[in-house]
Write a structure and sequence with these properties.
Number of helices: 15
Number of domains: 3
Largest sheet: 9 strands, mixed
Helix content: 40-55%
Strand order of the largest sheet: 3-4-5-2-1-6-10-8-11
Length: 421
């Protein structure tokens, strides 16, 4: 699909807004903002001295409370104050210390976004505008960055991405991250446990040999403009848009982690989305207050994921359907997708070489199906277990010197404990 086809058929209407004359940017960052304060730009602007376009999509849905709407509309008014109104209603461009801030107002009455499309639509609006302006050579970087309003971006944020400019097989970046937590508070400890569980899951998938072993956090992503176009843009979802976008782009190439200081994510209790960091932290906090252990996936589940991926690789070589009968664990057999044999047969019939079959099966058994398999294993006999027990028994947890970020997180949690005092 060409970019003109995308802009005509898939892009949001705001992408039709022509860029102001005489402006050029090295980089672009899209930031959805709901129920934030005008100080949100304080953590974003120090990311570097390059000319950057900050696209802030201030958004709210009709379903939100009167207070949330009022605060969000105040944010839009404050960010747009003194700026230049563009030809598309609700878009205002303002000068900042490190570039320009493009406010896109999707929160005032008549411009609110549908409740079920939430942050995904907000990101898509900003990304589609960035894509259109990149096409018009207003933005020079090949990378479309997106983050959130609760972060502090590190020095070297953009230069870390430039290291991959010529690596055409690298289609997306997932920046290192760290939640800034108050270890003296229960909420801080809950957030530490949540971050630990994210790292635990990615390490488990990496050990299992999954191509989808990367973090899917909206505030830490960058995607090539061409790749964004190839997958037809950001999913319009009220949560999980980051997971589904990265799941799509990973089928087209590699996802890498830039070499730079981590993005710092603030600690806060939030119910902005139905699932994700905020709701998970609240749920863990409630568990702690009840004196319950925080549990994570059983590490044996990752051993079975590893076995299944080995089976897929072997099938790509041999086309032996009997291999399904030789799976070592009945739990794995019961947990596989119902359409497994159909996809194996299709790969056998339509792909003539082992490499082609392997690529097809990797695309089929993607990050979403991997997560569903882990959940099915949990439901069919490998229940979640307390996190300390999991960390002690998991074969994929490295020694401290091999993954300092994970162990730093674990060490903080271990000092304060997983239970309420």
């Amino acid at each position: 699909m060409s970019i003109l086809q995308y802009l005509a058929n898939y892009a949001e209407p705001e992408s039709n807004c022509p860029p102001p004359k005489g402006r050029r940017y090295s980089n672009v960052v899209v930031v959805p903002a709901f129920d934030e304060t005008p100080s949100l730009m304080g953590g974003l602007l120090p990311a570097g001295d390059e000319k950057t376009l900050w696209i802030v999509v201030v958004n709210c849905s009709e379903a939100r409370s009167a207070g949330e709407k009022q605060r969000t509309r105040y944010l839009a008014s404050a960010l747009g104050q003194g700026g230049e109104e563009l030809s598309y209603e609700g878009m205002v461009l303002s000068d900042t210390t490190h570039g320009d801030l493009l406010l896109i107002d999707r929160c005032t009455e008549g411009r609110e976004i549908p409740a079920k499309q939430g942050v995904g639509l907000a990101r898509k609006i900003g990304c589609d505008v960035a894509l259109a302006w990149h096409h018009q050579e207003i933005i020079s970087s090949p990378w479309l960055h997106t983050t959130d309003a609760d972060v502090t971006l590190p020095i070297g944020y953009f230069s870390a991405a430039r290291a991959f400019d010529d690596a055409k097989n690298v289609v997306a970046l997932c920046y290192p991250f760290s939640h800034q937590t108050d270890a003296a508070s229960q909420v801080g400890r809950a957030l530490q446990l949540y971050e630990m569980s994210l790292r635990y899951y990615v390490l488990g998938l990496r050990w299992a040999g999954s191509k989808y072993a990367f973090h899917t956090i909206g505030s830490t992503m960058a995607v090539r403009f061409q790749t964004y176009l190839d997958v037809r843009g950001m999913p319009k979802r009220e949560a999980g848009e980051d997971f589904y976008l990265l799941g799509k782009v990973a089928k087209l190439g590699a996802v890498r982690t830039p070499d730079c200081a981590p993005i710092s994510i603030a600690q806060r209790e939030s119910q902005r989305t139905p699932f994700g960091t905020g709701p998970a932290t609240v749920a863990i906090h409630e568990q702690m207050r009840a004196g319950e252990d925080f549990c994570v996936y059983n590490p044996r589940s990752f051993a079975l994921v590893r076995e299944w991926l080995d089976v897929l690789n072997e099938f790509a070589e041999t086309c032996d359907l009997d291999i399904l009968d030789r799976l070592s664990h009945e739990t794995l057999k019961r947990s596989l997708p119902l359409d497994t044999e159909k996809h194996l047969r299709q790969a056998m019939a339509q792909c003539k070489t082992p490499s082609a079959r392997a690529a097809r099966l990797t695309t089929w058994f993607d990050g979403f199906r991997t997560l569903k398999l882990v959940h099915a294993l949990r439901d069919h006999g490998l229940p979640d277990i307390p996190w300390r027990q999991a960390v002690d028994s998991a074969p994929f947890i490295p020694e401290p010197e091999h993954d300092e970020k994970l162990w730093r997180c674990l060490a903080r949690v271990d000092v304060v404990g997983a239970r309420a005092p």
